Amino acid sequence: MPITRRQLLHRSALAAGALALPAIAALASEPAPLALVPGDNLFNRMTWFNEPASSKINGGELTVRSKPKTDFWQKTFDGYAADTGHFFHLSASGDFKFTALCNGNFATQYDQNGLMVRIDADNWMRCGTEFIDGKRSASVVFTRTYSDGSTLPDLSQSAPIWWRIVRKNDSIETFCSLDDEKYMSVRMGYFPTQKTVEVGVMCCAPTGGRDFDSTFQSLKLEAS
Questions:
Q1: Mean pLDDT (the chain, rounded)
Q2: Distance between CA 108 and CA 131 in Å, rounded?
Q3: φ and ψ at residue 200, rounded to 5 degrees
Q4: Closest CA to 48 of 35, 33, 67, 31
Q5: Most exposed among 48, 77, 144, 189, judged by the fewest C-beta atoms under 10 Å?
Q6: Which one-letter DSSP state was computed for residue 67?
Q7: CA distance 138 to 125
């Protein structure tokens, strides 16, 4: 019996729907993006990579005491490699902006704290304040098997600093500010395009001269 045009279109529509179902099911099975709620306390979602000597959350502030001889660095200059620093993190996907207010009792060579984005020991970046030769510096390190670091004078030798990471496509740009309004771009670098990464706050005390305490407040994670 001949098939009418209407019957043919109906069968085509059914076939198209059947083909679309696996794709819809695949999309439904993908993990949902991180829900960002205004006023959300990110500390509740975060976990430690390398537990510190101590840590305490008091409302919206995290205080961390670093263990001595802890660091994040890979190979460059003298072959030194360390992946022992403290990193309080959560997962983030795609393009995002992460901001936190950071401070610490910097006193010993290379005391450091700030923000970090990480895939694994060979693929990460960190930015923040680092104590070098008796003064605070704004420090950024990109690591892709080998670490590549840069510094410039810190915005203050005593005040807390706002640090911000903006991830877009295959790049991360770092910014710092004294007031969370006027931000200065510090450095941009390549970062692998892996969809989901870990982002959070970090601190370490590479020379371990004495206890180093860091504070982190006003953490915010947003789509960029």
A1: 87
A2: 7
A3: 175, -155
A4: 67
A5: 77
A6: P
A7: 14
The answer to whether 214 and 161 are in contact (CB under 8 A) is no
Distances (CA, A) of 130 to 71, 136, 161, 174: 12, 6, 12, 15
DSSP state of 50: S
Instruction: Decide if pLDDT at 1 tops 50.
Output: no
Over range 15-31, report the average pLDDT: 38
CATH class in words for 36-223: mainly beta
Residue 107 · residue 210 · CB < 8 Å: yes
One-letter identity of residue 138: A
Could you tell me the two tokens for 181?
Answer: 């309004």
| CA pair distance 74, 145, nearest whole angstrom | 7
The amino acid that residue 8 corresponds to is: L
Q: Record the tokens describing residue 82, joined without a space.
A: 């360390």
Task: Take residue 161 and report the two structure tokens written for it.
Answer: 């600093």
Q: Which residues are 113's β-sheet partners?
A: 129, 203
CA nearest neighbour of 88 among 56, 54, 51 = 51
Residues facing residue 166 across a β-bridge: 97, 173
* Predicted model pTM: 0.83
Beta carbons within 10 angstroms of residue 5's beta carbon: 7
